[in-house]
Amino acid sequence: VQLQASGGGLVQARGSLRLSCATSGRTFRYSTLSWLRQAPGKEREFVAGISGSGGTTLYADSVKGRFAISRDNAKNMMYLQMNSLEPEDTAVYYCATSTSVPTTHLTAYDLWGQGTLVTVSS
């Protein structure tokens, strides 16, 4: 059972990146999938989440209107389109899964993947 994030890199402020999360080992199509991040010297925080069907999404206020989460259950993939990136978005981004509805509470996430580093230069 595995979640693997990819797509991070170095981008200039106001640029865009698309992160991907590949799931394997079991079906996640009935589970919430979310993106969480941890900036240098800061605690891990919720970014965005999407329900199993894709019908419900939730965003942190700091990324609302700039980021878009999506999933493709046929491909066992989840994505995060990040636009208008800011230096404050610099962090390691993780994908994680929960049996609950999308939530900002990190304790609800019981499986985490390895992260991918996003660096936004000013």
Q: How are the SSEs ordered, and which strands pair?
A:
Blueprint: E1 2-6, E2 9-12, E3 17-24, E4 32-38, E5 45-50, E6 57-59, E7 67-72, E8 77-82, E9 91-98, E10 111-112, E11 116-121
Walkthrough of the structure:
This protein has 122 residues and is an all-beta fold. It has no helices and eleven strands. The N and C termini lie far apart (37 Å). The chain is 0% helix and 50% strand. The model has no long low-confidence stretch (mean pLDDT 96). Strands 2, 4, 5, 6, 9, 10 and 11 form a seven-stranded mixed beta sheet that branches. It has a four-stranded antiparallel beta sheet with strand order 1-3-8-7, with no helix packed on it. A hairpin with a 4-residue loop joins strand 7 and strand 8.
List the secondary-structure elements in sequence, H or E: EEEEEEEEEEE
Average pLDDT figure: 96
Total helical segments = 0
What structural class should be given to the helix and strand makeup?
mainly beta
Main sheet makeup? 7 strands, mixed
Distance between the termini: 37 Å
DSSP helix fraction: under 10%
Percent range for β-strand residues:
over 45%
Radius of gyration: 13 Å
The gross shape turns out to be globular
> What's the multimeric state?
single chain
Low-confidence stretches: none
Give the beta-strand count.
11
Key descriptive features of the protein:
122 residues, mainly beta, 7-stranded mixed beta sheet, 4-stranded antiparallel beta sheet, 11 strands, 50% strand, globular
